[in-house]
Amino acid sequence: MAEIENPSVSIQNLSLNYGAVSVLQTLNLDIADGEFIVLLGPSGCGKSTLLNCIAGLLDISKGRIFIKGKNVTWEEPKDRGIGMVFQSYALYPQMTVEKNLSFGLRVAGLARGEIAKRIARAAEILQIEPLLQRKPSALSGGQRQRVAIGRALVRDVDVFLFDEPLSNLDAKLRSELRVEIKLLHRRLQNTMIYVTHDQIEAMTLADRIAVMKGGVIQQLDAPQTIYNRPVNRFVAGFLGSPAMNFVEGRLEKRGDGWFFVAEDLNIPLGTYQFDGQPEAGPAVFGIRPEHVSLNSGTGWPFSTAANVEVVEPMGSDTLVWLKLAEQKFSVRVTSERTPKNDEAVTVGFDPMRASLFNAETGSRI
Q: Which parts of the sequence belong to the ABC transporter domain (predicted)?
């Protein structure tokens, strides 16, 4: 993505240390006005810590934070022009939904008419008008989270921060609220920064994803770019369910062509697009289960024989596990073409859809 002019949120050389422990390491991130960006990574990667730094809930060690062009590095959270939705609903149990929505506005001293107008707007957008006189104990988990989002919405701010807001909900509710949050963003066009460890949430919601590990952004790009061209083995393995297949072996040059070689495997790489100049040596071959086919004839650039070890029916499709070069390998097939355990099959794929990684550094080759 090209450099962003007048970003809505700009994080410059941000670091956070707890004593000798470095939690965030010299992070730089510009977020465009109206962009939906997701901070994605495993537990402990620093994504929620970064969100809390943007919110002003944590003091940073170095760097600067700008929101709408204003340096807010040392501003109080209430002065940053943000609305935040937490993992916990954090609703006042003794108050009605309407009182929960209006509490912050009443404390801020807004006029009654303005408060009523904002509550009516938020309730309409989130479809919670019938719930305004109920208390949280009379609401479902999804309804409570809508109210929590509404409490941020009534603040009428430019930037919304979401800290794993759906993780306490069951799978069905998560799926429903994902759609609602996406529709909310389309309607409001506000800047939204969303933290999750759920890759499905990240892929479906984000304009761009920042994949984090160890307090460092590993890759920042559009979801499909990250999925199809991960910059390193960590990113490749983190996105995708099931994860990308990895086969350890060697990269070899023969004549004018490059080959990936492992036990009983000799894969010509053809027109594979290398990142930079390749070198012969230990490498890892990665390919996603849905980019592999079973028993599909001779039309694939590369094919080899294998035996099925485990079959996992998953409803609309089936996951087939086998071994390639004595290493675990999965293939996603349609449920109508499910092989049997121990069946001999032909595995076919196009190496152009693969990803090659340096065995030592994990970086994309």
A: 9-239
Q: At what angle do helices 97-107 and 112-126 cross, to 10 degrees?
A: 140
- Predicted local distance difference test score (pLDDT) of residue 167: 83
Q: How confident is the model at residue 291 (pLDDT cuts 50, 70, 90)?
A: very high
What is 25-76 written as a DSSP string? EEEEEEE-TT-EEEEE-STTSSHHHHHHHHHTSS--SEEEEEETTEE-TT--
Over residues 72-90, the mean pLDDT reads 89
220 forms bridges with which residues in the sheet?
210
Sheet with 9-18: strands ordered across: 21-31, 9-18, 62-67, 70-71
User: pTM, whole model, 2 decimals?
Assistant: 0.90
Residue 194's beta-bridge partner residues?
A: 38, 162
Question: Measuring CA to CA, how many Å separate 90 from each of 94, 140, 286, 317?
Answer: 12, 14, 43, 39
Instruction: Give the whole-angstrom CA distance, residue 182 versus residue 235.
Output: 24
Tokens of 27: 């992070």
Residue 19 CB partners (closer than 8 Å, separation 6+): none
Distance from C-alpha of 28 to C-alpha of 25, rounded to nearest angstrom: 9
Q: Are strands 355-358 and 62-67 parallel, antiparallel or unpaired?
A: unpaired
Domains of the chain: 9-235 (3.40.50.300), 245-358 (2.40.50.140)
Phi/psi region, residue 69 (left: phi>0; alpha: psi -120 to 50; beta: rest), is left
Q: What is the DSSP string of 292-339?
A: EEES-TT-SSEEEEEEEEEEEE-SSEEEEEEEETTEEEEEEEEGGGPP
The pair of structure tokens assigned to 357 is 């990684």
State both tokens at 138.
Answer: 């009379």
